[in-house]
Amino acid sequence: MKQRCAVLAVFLLLGLLLVPAAWGAVELKLGHFGPENHPSTIAAAQFAENVEKRTNGEIKIIVYPNNALGSPPEVLEQVIMGVIDMSLSGQDQIAKHVKLFDSVAIPFSMQGYEHADRILDGPFKEWAAPELEKIGLVYINSWEWGFRQITNSKRPILSPDDVKGLKIRTPPAMAYQAAIEALGGNVQTIAFGELVMAMRQGVVDGQENPIGVIYDLKLYESQKYITIVNYLYSSMTHVVSKKVFDSLTDDQRKIIIEESDKSRLLMRELVRKQEQDQIADMKSKGIRIDTPDLAPFQAKMGPAYEKIRRNIGEENFDKWMEMARATAK
């Protein structure tokens, strides 16, 4: 009898040792605003898959794209409170809590994608991370959203004068609005979820977004003129609730950072490659796409710079511009 009990005890112990790690998995929610077919969702899926694999199922990340957990401001608020574990939040949303994030949107302060990478992956991250920690967020990485272009249904935009009087939809973000106003546009604020219908119904004349958004939402169907101005860069910032991050082991935190690094690079690669293909496809559909001289547009940014400087503080404005100069080529 004792021998039988001993054998049973051994099998029980072996059974406990062989229980899949996933049974005790920690589930983390990742919310973001990118559409389901957008590079952000593809990169987030890779991030979730790799984290689960490398932690042997100890961490399972559930990705909620397309505002499934709420609007961008709501999702970020819930990450700050620790209700949602992590998000890919727009820099304009974070700027509502940490003003220096609006410096990323200083118009024409970046020369292109490689310049953006050098700033955001280097001095900006070192500068911003401690400020995010003060509000309960861990700054993991800057992913991508892209340089923003202007579309409209009225006329080609070849100079700032062509923007004058156009009703242009922007997000409810100070820097974006200041830039369009400086060009003479009449800024209109419409929720992102209502953008497609507003374009179709002609509620506004135009809007501004990265090429990927213009293409994925088929805004070109009602916006026949696209102007490549790269007037402003916007990013998705991967942030995690500090409370959640601190609850993980050192190894788990390291894996999350490393896999976010890889997915950040994947998203950038996808966004940039797809932009060229999408531009070519829209041209084949008869959409007019212009690439004017940007110097006259930048020359109009004085009022926008003053407004942004007042909003984020002179020290923050000057620090960003110095970082931009130091990382330019």
Apparent shape: globular
Number of helices: 14
Q: Major sheet, described briefly?
A: 6 strands, mixed
**Radius of gyration over C-alpha positions, nearest whole angstrom:** 23 Å
The end-to-end distance, rounded to whole angstroms, is 81 Å
Unreliable spans are 2-22
Proportion in β-strands: 15-25%
The topology string of helices and strands comes to HEHEHEHHHEEEHEHEHEEHHEHHH
Strand order across the biggest sheet? 7-6-8-5-9-11
What is the typical, i.e. mean, pLDDT? 92
What is the share of helical residues? 40-55%
| Structural class designation | alpha/beta
DSSP E strands, number: 11
Characterise the protein shown here.
The strands form two sheets. A six-stranded mixed beta sheet has the order 7-6-8-5-9-11. A five-stranded mixed beta sheet has the order 2-1-3-10-4, sandwiched between helices. Strand 6 (167-170), helix 7 and strand 7 form a beta-alpha-beta unit. The protein has 14 helices and eleven strands. Helices cover 49% and strands 19% of the residues. The chain has helices spanning 2-17, 39-54, 72-81, 91-94, 113-121, 123-134, 174-182, 195-201, 211-216, 242-247, 250-284, 295-299, 302-312, 314-327; strands at residues 26-32, 59-64, 86-90, 137-142, 146-152, 167-170, 186-189, 206-210, 225-234, 236-241, 288-290. The chain is an alpha/beta fold and 329 residues long.
